[in-house]
Amino acid sequence: MKRIVASASLLVLLSACVEPQASLPDSALSRAGCYTVDLYDDPYRRNEIQPAKVGLSDNWNRYLGVWGEGAWNGGQCHEIHVTEVNQDGSVVVIDTVAPYETLRAESHRRTGRIDRNGRLIVPGSNGPTVYSYENGRLRGTRFRRSGGTDHVILMPQSS
C-alpha cells in the first residue's frame, strides 16, 4: 500500500512538471563556461556517446550527447552526458555537478527513461530530475524529496 501511495504521489508531482516554472529568469539558469568534473578514462568506453539507434524517434535520439553550461538555480554547475537511448525508452546518463558552497563535486552513472510525453526522467539520490527538450536546449527540474524544486537550462556541448 505504501508503494502505491508513493507511486501515485510521484506521478502527481511529475505531472505538474509539464511546464516547470522557475523563479529565476532563464538567463540565470545557464552560465557559459560553467564547469563540473572531468570524466575518468573508461577502458570499456562506457563514457562515449553511442550512435543514434535506427528506427527510434528523433524526439528520443535528440537527447544523445553532452549537455552543460547549466547552473542549478543559478548556482551549482551541472552537466549530463546522455550516452545511450534504447528502444524501450531507457536512457544511460552520466550526471555531474561541480563543487558549490558546502556541496561537493559528484558524477553518477544513472539509468533514466523517456516518458510518453517525451521528457527524460532521471532518478537521483535526493529525488528525480525531469528534462524537457526546448528549442535546442534542455530545461531541467529537480524534485527534492524534502520538498521544493531546482531549475537549470543545459546547452548542447561538443562531445
Task: Report how far apart the termini are.
Answer: 44 Å
Order of helices and strands: HHEEEEEEEE
- In CATH, what is the class? Mainly Beta
**Oligomer class:** single chain
Mean pLDDT: 87
Percentage beta strand = 35-45%
Helix proportion = 10-25%
Describe this protein with a few key phrases.
globular; 8-stranded antiparallel beta barrel; single chain; 2 helices; mainly beta; 159 residues; disordered N terminus; Lipocalin
Could you give a quick summary of the protein structure above?
11% of the residues lie in helices and 38% in strands. By secondary structure, the protein is mainly beta.
Please tell me about this protein's structure.
The protein has 159 residues and is mainly beta. The protein has one domain (2-157): Lipocalin, CATH 2.40.128. The chain contains 2 helices and 8 strands, in the order ααββββββββ. The chain has an 8-stranded antiparallel beta barrel. β7 (137-143) and β8 (149-157) form a beta hairpin.
Fold blueprint:
Blueprint: H1 2-15, H2 58-61, E1 65-72, E2 76-85, E3 90-97, E4 106-114, E5 120-122, E6 129-134, E7 137-143, E8 149-157
Antiparallel strand pairs: 1-2, 1-8, 2-3, 3-4, 4-5, 5-6, 6-7, 7-8
